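Lab notes, practical 5.
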Amino acid sequence: MKLPKFLLADNSEFPEDLFVVHTEYPRFILNVEEEEVEWLDDLEGDDEETMADEATKVVEAAFKWCDEELAKYDEEEDED
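Output from the prediction step:
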């Protein structure tokens, strides 16, 4: 099964929070409201600084994707 790179998620146990799930390596769950990341994969690599830079980039991409996705929902609501 082909999965999208990012998924939006919520949970009734955390009604104020919104999550982004990153399904590709390195997999993680981002709590958008708290700006916290739970890594599901160990970040591996020879250069720790490079891995930190790559992790930062993918988390920033998740925030950007989430903002764009929420804007689409707002546009749909405005059309109704």
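Observations recorded by the TA: The radius of gyration is 14 Å. The chain has a mean pLDDT of 92.
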